Amino acid sequence: MPFTFASYFLITKISNMKKHIFPFLAMMTLLLASCHTAKEAHHHAHWSYAGETDPAHWAELEKDAQCDGKHQSPINIIEKDVKPSNANNLVFHYSPQTKIKDAVNNGHSIQFNFDEGNFIYYNGKEYKLKQLHFHEGSEHTVNGIRYPIEMHLVHVSDDGQIAVVGVFGSEGTDSQLFEFFDKFLPIAVDEHKSIHQALDLKSFLPTNSAYYSYTGSLTTPPCSENVNWIVYKMPIVLSVDEVEQIRKELPIRNYRPTQPLNGRTVYEN
Ligand SMILES: [Zn+2]
Q1: What is the model's pLDDT at position 251?
Q2: Tens digit of pLDDT for each residue in 185-221?
């Protein structure tokens, strides 16, 4: 591209400027368009959790993303630094009738997509539950401790704001929730599996509703910021076998390392 540009520019200068300005602009547009297309095609397959495309390289791989931002997720939650929140503004409106539409293995996680019907109110705004997915081990850590699993419930408001509820999973007895998920495994990379079954998700949330909250980002590219994070303190319990079932489906250690707080405050309710 630099050679073509330079030679064309030289010819243009020597020749009559007026006669050449339109083809010149047309060529530039084409060049820019083809660069853009190549980059787009590149975009989706490229980042990963290991090797040359691991989280340390996301910022350079994903040029239009915010992965090198200052308010990134996940974080290590240090309990002694957590401040009490003066708002208690989280209400779950999950219906037992809401169905899971399908499940997909997107190569980064296993994701279950929901039909409409579940939403939360958070700080006076409604966020609809779109999907849930898993990380093995957890992305957030508490006092440096990493749980075996973290489940993310991703909610989006009508104006495009995001609220993610993080639920840790610790190893113990069988979980009916994971029994439900395991029925649909294995799922090959890029495979979509239709489900259309109701799941009473609320009945499986931790029995103690205390949570941490802070403002961060998506933990995968494009790492978009201003995500409202709500992380349950109490884990849900699942068996070692159930952790293993999920683990077999995921890229090994599909968690992003914890990111610096950079002056942010973590609250608790
Ligand atoms: Zn996630």
Answers
A1: 86
A2: 999 999 999 999 999 999 999 999 999 999 999 999 9
* Span from the CA of 159 to the centroid of ligand 1 (angstroms): 21
Cα of 258 from ligand 1 centre, angstroms: 13
CA of 216 to the centre of ligand 1 (A): 12
Beta bridge partners of 163: 155, 228
Q: Distance between CA 105 and CA 112 in Å, rounded? A: 9
Point out the residues that are catalytic: 108
Residues within 5 A (CB) of ion ligand 1: 152
d(CA 127, CA 226): 14
100: its two tokens: 């899971």
92, 176 in Cβ contact below 8 A? Answer: no
Whole-number Å distance, alpha carbon 255 to ligand 1 midpoint, is 8
Q: How is the chain classified by DSSP, letter by letter? A: -HHHHHHHHHHHHHS-HHHHHHHHHHHHHHHHHHHHHHHHHHHTT---SSGGGSGGGHHHH-TTS-TT-SS-S--EE-GGG-EE-S---EEEE--TTPEEEEEEE-SS-EEEEEPS--EEEETTEEEEEEEEEEEES-SSEETTEEPSEEEEEEEE-TTS-EEEEEEEEEEES--HHHHHHHTT----TT-EEEEEEE--GGGGS-SS--EEEEEEE-SSTT--EEEEEEEESSPEEEEHHHHHHHHHHSPTT--PPP---TT---EE-
Q: Counting beta carbons within 10 angstroms of the beta carbon of residue 252, is it exposed (0 to 12), middle (13 to 18) or buried (19 or more)?
A: exposed
pLDDT band at 20 (very low <50, low <70, confident <90, very high): low
What's the pLDDT tens digit per position in 1-12?
444 444 444 444
